[in-house]
C-alpha cells in the first residue's frame, strides 16, 4: 500500500463501499465481485522537517516506465540537481528532478528554508521535461543558476493550475490520431524497439521536427485557449489580440 497515493486509494475505497451499500444500486453479480485489482496513477509523496527547520518533500511516480517486462530501463539522461542549500544555516534550496528514458519526470525532491505549495511539486511528476522551458539544457549551460527561482517565475504558473493536467490529457487525445503524429509515434516505437534505449533528447528534437506546421499551430492555439479560459487565474500571460480589451 505504501507504493500508492493515500488520497487516491481512499477515494477508490470509499466509492467501492458506497457502491456495495447503496440501496439504489443493483446487487453486484459474481462477475462484478471478481474484478481485477484497480490501477492507481497519482504520485506518492513523503515530507517532513529536517534539522535547522529545513523543509523536505519527495514526490515520485507510482507507475515507472517498463519498455519490456523483465528488462531494466536504460538511463539516457542525467538528473537535474540544483543545490544552493547551506545545511549549516538551513538557508537556500535544493531541488532534484529524475527522468525516465523517454523524458517524463519520475520524481522531484525539494529541500529548503521556504514553505512551498505541495501541489506544485505534485504537478511536475508525469510531465515531460520539455514542459520545463528548456530548464535542463539551460541549467547545464549555466544560463540559469537557480532552478527553484526559475520555476517560480510567471512563465511557469500555468504548470501549477489545477486543470493543466486535464488540458495536457485532452491535447494528447486530440492530436494522437493525426497522420503526422502517428508517423512520429511509429518512428519512435521502431527506434525504442530496436535499440532499447528509450527516447533521448536528440531524438526528441528530431521527432519534433517531423510535425507538420498545422499541428504545431493547433497546439499553440489550444494552449492560448486554455490560458484565455483561465485568465482570471493566469493574468500574467500575454494573449495576442487582447492588448486593449
Task: Give a description of the structure.
This protein is an alpha+beta fold. It has three domains: 1-41, no CATH class; 42-155, Enolase-like, domain 1, CATH 3.30.390; 166-229, no CATH class. Helices cover 37% and strands 13% of the residues. It is built from nine helices and five strands. A five-stranded antiparallel sheet has the order 1-2-5-4-3. β4 and β5 (105-112) form a beta hairpin. α6 runs antiparallel to α9 (213-229). The longest helix is centred in the C-terminal third of the chain and has 17 residues, at 179-195. It is globular. It starts with 5 loop residues before the first helix and ends in a 16-residue tail after the last helix. The mean pLDDT is 84.
Give the strand order, joined by hyphens, for the main sheet: 1-2-5-4-3
Tally of helical segments = 9
Radius of gyration equals: 21 Å
Shape: globular
Listing every helix as H and every strand as E from the N terminus to the C terminus, the arrangement reads HHEEEEEHHHHHHH
Q: Which fold name corresponds to the CATH topology of the largest domain?
A: Enolase-like, domain 1
What's a quick, concise take on this entry?
The protein has 245 residues and is α+β, with helices and mostly antiparallel strands. The chain has helices at residues 6-21, 30-33, 118-124, 135-140, 147-150, 164-175, 179-195, 201-208, 213-229, and strands at residues 44-50, 54-60, 80-83, 93-99, 105-112. Strands 1-2-5-4-3 form a five-stranded antiparallel sheet.
Amino acid at each position: 500500500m505504501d507504493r500508492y497515493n493515500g488520497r487516491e486509494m481512499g477515494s477508490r475505497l470509499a466509492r467501492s463501499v458506497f457502491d456495495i451499500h447503496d440501496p439504489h444500486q443493483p446487487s453486484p453479480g459474481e462477475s462484478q465481485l471478481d474484478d481485477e485489482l484497480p490501477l492507481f496513477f497519482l504520485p506518492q509523496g513523503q515530507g517532513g522537517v529536517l534539522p535547522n527547520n529545513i523543509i523536505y518533500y519527495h514526490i515520485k511516480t507510482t507507475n515507472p516506465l517498463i519498455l519490456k517486462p523483465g528488462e531494466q530501463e536504460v538511463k539516457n539522461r542525467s538528473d537535474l540537481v540544483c543545490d544552493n542549500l547551506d545545511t549549516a544555516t538551513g538557508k537556500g534550496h535544493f531541488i532534484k528532478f529524475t527522468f525516465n528514458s523517454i523524458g517524463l519526470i519520475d520524481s522531484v525532491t525539494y529541500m529548503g528554508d521556504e514553505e512551498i505549495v505541495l501541489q506544485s511539486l505534485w504537478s511536475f511528476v508525469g510531465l515531460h521535461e520539455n514542459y520545463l522551458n528548456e530548464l535542463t539544457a539551460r541549467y547545464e549551460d549555466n544560463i540559469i543558476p537557480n532552478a527553484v527561482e526559475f520555476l517560480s517565475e510567471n512563465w511557469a504558473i500555468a504548470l501549477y493550475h489545477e486543470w493543466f493536467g486535464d488540458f495536457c490529457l485532452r491535447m494528447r487525445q486530440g492530436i494522437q490520431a493525426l497522420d503526422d503524429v502517428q508517423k512520429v509515434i511509429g518512428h519512435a516505437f521502431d527506434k525504442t524497439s530496436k535499440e532499447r534505449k528509450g527516447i533521448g533528447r536528440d531524438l526528441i528534437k528530431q521527432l519534433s521536427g517531423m510535425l507538420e506546421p498545422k499541428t504545431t499551430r493547433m497546439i499553440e492555439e489550444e494552449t492560448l485557449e486554455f490560458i484565455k479560459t483561465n485568465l482570471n487565474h493566469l493574468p500574467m500571460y500575454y494573449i495576442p489580440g487582447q492588448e486593449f480589451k
